[in-house]
Amino acid sequence: MSAKPRPLPRDFENLEFETLEENWNRYELKNHTVVRGRVIVTRFAKDSHDPTPNAYALSSQNVFVVDAPVEQRGEPTLTPLTPDQIKNPKGTPVNIVNSNEVWNRYRILSTGVVLKVKLIVQDAMRLTPDRFDSDGMPQYLFRSSPMVVPDRFENTNLKT
């Protein structure tokens, strides 16, 4: 079970940033499905009450693209998942047999600090066998979270 993200206080400062690099991760599942995953950062923010340098809050969206073998594909499911189906999914866990998770890089414009963000996938679940996306690919739920660290090579000369 993952921890709930803490809400941003009203007095957090939203920080402008530039994307230096955003990459796709690759996951090979035991059932021969290949999944590409990517974390997209939508916001960096700073808590004005936190004296810790380089302590940032992050908002992000994860994107997954499934490429299943032909025999695992089906007719697109017309009804979207309900909130209850997302909270209490029914399906089969599928082992990740090989993965390549790479860092994305972002620069905070006001300070020049470069942060690295990596999407970490803990596990995958194939939803009930009758669920397919609009391209006929089987639907999965992925338990994942972003990891954020300063880029120690880019930030050696910065004073923050």
What key attributes describe this structure?
mainly beta; 160 residues; five-stranded antiparallel beta sheet
The computed structural class is mainly beta
Strand content: over 45%
Distance between the termini: 35 Å
Count of all domains: 1
Helix/strand order = EEEEEHEEEEE
The low-pLDDT segments are none
- Average the pLDDT over all residues and give the rounded result: 89
* Radius of gyration (Å): 18 Å
- Supply the number of helical segments: 1
Give an overview in words.
With 160 residues, this protein is mainly beta. It has one domain (13-150). The chain is built from 1 helix and 10 strands. Strands 1, 3, 4, 5 and 7 form a 5-stranded antiparallel beta sheet that branches. Strands 2, 6, 8, 9 and 10 form a 5-stranded antiparallel beta sheet that branches. The longest helix has 5 residues, at 83-87. The radius of gyration is 18 Å and the shape is elongated. The model has no long low-confidence stretch (mean pLDDT 89).
Put the structure in a nutshell:
The chain is mainly beta and 160 residues long.
Task: Summarize the helices and strands and which ones pair or pack.
Blueprint: E1 13-15, E2 17-21, E3 25-29, E4 34-46, E5 56-67, H1 83-87, E6 91-94, E7 96-100, E8 103-108, E9 114-127, E10 140-150
